[in-house]
Amino acid sequence: MSAMSPSRWRQVVGSTMHCVAGDGIGILAAAVIGSLLDLPMGLEVAFEYAAGFLFGWMIFQALFMRDMMGGSYGKALAATFYAELVSMNGVMAGMVLVSLPWRMHLSMAPPSTAAFWFVMSIGLTLGFAVAYPINWWLVARGLKHGMMTIRPAAAPMPAMAMAGNEQGMHDMPMEAGMSMSHETGGSTTAAQRLAFAAGTFLLLAVALVISFRLS
């Protein structure tokens, strides 16, 4: 393990928390809007997925990593797309296993009730648990930066850490002098990345089938 890495699990926990925070905001906002608009459950789930992915990708991932890509937001979007996509599949898989059946059994409790927020919070907790091994794979293979990385004393601080405490809390490089390795696929082949992504989509599909059957 690198001298910069206090422990892999701490990096992955931080990375997964970062993922769930961004995706969760989008999912919750879409769930509130979908409930107020009385959208059909299938359409609301699709809306939640799209909102969670776009918010997590465009704000929590690309925007906060822009400085690591030389200030280019476009490059940051491209570099973080894959990791955000497969992470989102894990978060949503765990989320629907709780939110769909529970909300249906609670007669679709509206956002003005405590039951709505309790169910959604439990759903996000399960989403974290499902997304954790996905983020482990991503971090271990250089496709995503583990958070809470410690640099050697002689290594220069990254630009994003010097920009302020808020941005400095986000994902940092795993090794001194290492560029955004996930920009070029990390230590994986295109076939491996494709297979892993397909696995996360299969996981999400299975979770959706189970959720609708329980609803």
Q: Please mark out the parts with pLDDT under 50 across 5 or more consecutive residues, or reply none.
A: 148-180
How big is the Rg?
Answer: 18 Å
Fraction in helix: 55-70%
Shape: globular
- Number of separate structural domains: 1
Helical/strand content category: mainly alpha
Element order, helices and strands?
HHHHHHH
β-strand percent reads under 5%
Total number of strands: 0
Mean pLDDT: 83
Spatial gap, N to C terminus = 45 Å
Largest sheet: none
Number of discrete helical segments: 7
Description:
The protein is mostly helical and 215 residues long. The protein has one domain. It is 67% helix and 0% strand. The protein has seven helices and no strands. It has helices at residues 8-36, 41-61, 73-105, 114-140, 159-162, 165-168, 190-214. Helix 3 (73-105) runs parallel beside helix 7. The radius of gyration is 18 Å and the shape is globular. The termini are far apart.
Descriptive terms for the model:
single chain, 215 residues, mainly alpha, globular
Task: Give a summary of the structure in a few sentences.
The chain is mostly helical and 215 residues long. The protein has helices at 8-36, 41-61, 73-105, 114-140, 159-162, 165-168, 190-214.
Blueprint of the fold:
Layout: H1 8-36, H2 41-61, H3 73-105, H4 114-140, H5 159-162, H6 165-168, H7 190-214
